[in-house]
Amino acid sequence: VLDINLPSSRQYEKIGKVFEDALKEFLTESPYPMDMISKDAEKREDLVRKVASKLASDECRYGALVPLNPFLGSEEQGSGIYNFVVATISAFFDNDLLNSVRILMTNAKGSFGLCVVSSLDSHRQMCFAARGQTMSVAFYPKKHVILYGSEQAAVKAAMDVDFPGPSVTGPIDCSTLNVDSDVLRLDLDDVGGEICLVDWGKNQYKTPAVSPLNQHIVPQSAMNGQVCLYLIQESVMHQPDLLYHRMTKLSKNVLITDLKDDSDDLILQDIRDIPKVCSAIQDDWMDIGHKSSMFSLNRLTAWNLGRSIKERLEQYASGELTPCANRVDILLSGCEVSLWLAEQFASDLQKSFPKLRIVAISSNKLLGLYGQEGISIPTIGHPISESSLNLYDSITIIVSHSGGTFSPLGCSSLFQSKTKNIFVVTSEWDTQIGKQLRSFDNQDGITMKLVFNSRIFVTGVGMRPAEPCSVSVVATHQLLTNIYEFISIVILSDERYRNVTGAVVTLKDLETLERCNRENIVALEDIVGADTAGFPFATGEDSTEMRLREAGDV
Fold first, then answer.
1. Residue 427 DSSP label
2. How deeply is 346 buried, as exposed, middle or buried, from its count of CB atoms within 10 A (0-12, 13-18, 19+)?
3. DSSP readout, 107-140?
4. Strands lying side by side in the sheet with 136-140
5. Other Cβ atoms within 10 Å of 303 Cβ, number
6. Which of 350, 305, 283 is nearest to 483 (CA)?
7. What is the rounded distance in angstroms from the CA atom of residue 342 to the CA atom of residue 231?
8. Which of 78, 175, 208, 472 has the maximal Cβ count within 10 Å?
């Protein structure tokens, strides 16, 4: 804490009065308007010298400037009256909402997801910023609404809501050629850092949206020209010319999972959905009665995973790679409940193929070990270190139901420098981790590589507001079971792969597991008291669910 008394508001007003009087005199003497002065460096310099000469007078030096004396030094040190005036006038002309947030993000340390509003411009604009924390902005042109939030699912809240007042008519679920009329979402670059100014006053006010310092930024149009976006990405020198390749369509997009309908008992509804979700995952995996384009990605992702496994095993079979104590073949990571599921999966896989090294490690531990912003935290009490883990080209599977938890999200970005084989098991296609992995293959633009390098396994559970873990855990178990079976089939299909992995599991074991897997749906229906359509059984019908409830009555 500085042991210095800052000037009071009244004292600041006296200093400001000197600037104000000097500006009035300058405008009287000069034929140029204010906006021209702000853009012309020479005219700014003339104004600076005029103000500095007034402040340097004895009347001001021993009057209004006295409270600032502890902060003023020599011009050589860069803290004299002239430099003070330069900084003040630059702030007056340049520090609008966008530039103020830019200065904050440049000098701040840590992770941020910000929404900033200025009382001077609250009638026409607001600013968003993200670094290390997610931030999404959704545009609803037909409803004249902009939603923002740190959770992607939050900005889908207006999809099925009718707003009062006039709206642009037109269907929201059928395709048109005008993409600007669709509901679009922009996810700010939380890895490299990004600032987004949203201005809706272009057509209403004559004044520019940003100060001269940032007027070189090309505004991006949204909502049929009703809104202009000014983007500053901290990690790149040149801003993208087109914005649409970064936007995600929330309407007319079969890959987007709708928010669930409200329910009087969210926990009960989640439990009743368990047979329905597990049956849908199994049917999709076997391509039975396939109806959802979202689920079809699981088969494509499995094909890509199988390709990565074969590439790894070929290296062992050919002698290109030799067994090594610290080399990790398959890495699983997650947090909390997702980590527990990943540990169960890794345990089963390791026992089935003992010659491979398969480990499950907390995403928090990995993020701390390999560090963010150059900070590495040793994992004291845990047998992992940078020397004990060789993660080069290891097959990495991140398990995260939400797809947006901080440390798994950080790992999805961090590990892209270590391996090209990264996958995620999550609740839906449209998650933050999914976005990171899609951008991994999209650095050179939209190509067929992006399609065939699918990296996202989805349970189809979507966002669930109920606090207890029920359907999300069971669905992830179900999907991991199918992935386990697929990996086993890939390995058992080639005798060389069986030898290099030391395969213990047999085809007969897989047949038994698959039979139990299919019969498990009937058992789940009996346990939760609902069928695969999500409807509860008739009241009074004998079931395991009823007997469990009776046993719980004390």
1. S
2. buried
3. H--S-EEEEE--TTTTTTEEEEEEEBS--EEEEE
4. 145-149, 136-140, 184-187, 248-249
5. 12
6. 305
7. 38
8. 472
Q: Indicate the burial class of 480 (C-beta count within 10 angstroms; 0-12, 13-18, 19 or more).
A: buried
pLDDT averaged over every residue in the chain:
86
Q: How many CA atoms does the CB half-sphere of 132 hold within 13 Å? A: 10
So what's the pLDDT on residue 547?
A: 79
Q: Which helix (H) or strand (E) holds 197?
A: strand 194-199
Q: Which two tokens stand for residue 241?
A: 């010319």
381 touches 367 (CB < 8 A): no
Q: Each residue of 15-68: pLDDT tens digit?
A: 899 899 999 989 888 888 888 888 888 999 999 999 989 888 878 877 888 888
Separation of CA 350 from chain center: 32
Number of Cβ atoms within 10 Å of the Cβ of 4? 7
| Residue 292 pLDDT greater than 60, yes or no | no
Enter the tokens of residue 159: 């999809």
Q: Which residues contact 138 (CB under 8 A, 6 or more apart)?
A: 146, 147, 148, 155, 156, 158, 183, 184, 185, 186, 250
Task: State the Cα–Cα distance between residues 73 and 84, nearest whole angstrom.
Answer: 10
| Residue that has been written with the tokens 């050589």 in this structure | 76
Rounded distance, CA 89 to CA 468, Å? 56
Q: Which amino acid is at 270?
A: D
Adjacency order of strands within the sheet including 125-131: 112-116, 125-131, 194-199, 227-233, 220-222
